[in-house]
Amino acid sequence: MDGKAPRTRIQEKNTAAILEAALEVFSQAGFRGATLDQIAKTAGLSKPNLLYYFPSKEAIHVTLLSGMLDLWLDPLRAIDASGDPVGTILGYVQSKLQMAQEFPRESRLFANEIVQGAPRVLGIIEGPLKELVDEKAVLIRGWIDAGRLAPVDPHHLIFSIWATTQHYADFDVQVQGILGPSEQRFDDAATFLDHLYRSALTPR
C-alpha cells in the first residue's frame, strides 16, 4: 500500500478526461505547441482543476507516454520460443499494424517525442526497452541458428517492423493523400506486409 486514499469515481473520470484531451492536443500540436489551457478546455475543466490532478504539462505527457509504451510493447513481450518462428513474427507484424490503425494518436505522440530527442523517455529507451529488444533479438538469433528462420539481423528486423507498421499511423495523411481515405489501405497493407516478411524470413 502506498498510503494514498483510493480515488473517487469523479477523480477517475476527470483524470481520464484530462489524459484523453491531452492525447488529442499533443498528437496535433506536439509537446512544445500544446498548452495546459488547451488541454483543460478540451477536457471541459478549468486550468486550476486540471492542476489538481497533474502538476505540469510534462507530468501529463510522461503519464501518456508511459501508458502508451506499456500497451505498445505488449505484443513484443508476447513473442516466445514456443511458437512457429515465421508465424510468430508475422503475428507480431499484424498486431503492430492493427495498433497503428486503432491507436494513431498514441503512435504520433511517441513519434513526436522521438523526433525531439526523447527528452522524457530516453531513460526508458536506453533501459527497459533496450533490454526487451535485446532479449527478443537473442530469441530470434536462436531461431536463425537452428535453421528455423532465414538469416537476418534481429535488431534491424524489429526496427523494420516498427517502421513499416507505424508508418500507417504517423504518416496517415500522406498515405490517405495517395490512396484515398478507404479503410482498405489497412487490409492491403496487412496482405503486403505478410508477403514481405514471410518471403524474407522463410528459410530457403
Automatic annotation (TrEMBL):
Keywords linked to the UniProt accession: DNA-binding
DNA-binding region of this protein: 35-54
Location of the HTH tetR-type domain: 12-72
InterPro entries: Homeodomain-like_sf (IPR009057), HTH-type_TetR-like_transc_reg (IPR050109), HTH_TetR (IPR001647), Tet_transcr_reg_TetR-rel_C_sf (IPR036271), Tscrpt_reg_YcdC_C (IPR013573)
One of the Pfam families matching this protein, by short name: TetR_N
Lineage: superkingdom: Bacteria
Matching SUPFAM superfamilies: Homeodomain-like (SSF46689), Tetracyclin repressor-like, C-terminal domain (SSF48498)
PANTHER family: HTH-TYPE TRANSCRIPTIONAL REGULATOR RUTR (PTHR30055)
Protein name: TetR family transcriptional regulator C-terminal domain-containing protein
Lineage of the species this protein comes from: Bacteria, Pseudomonadati, Pseudomonadota, Alphaproteobacteria, Rhodobacterales
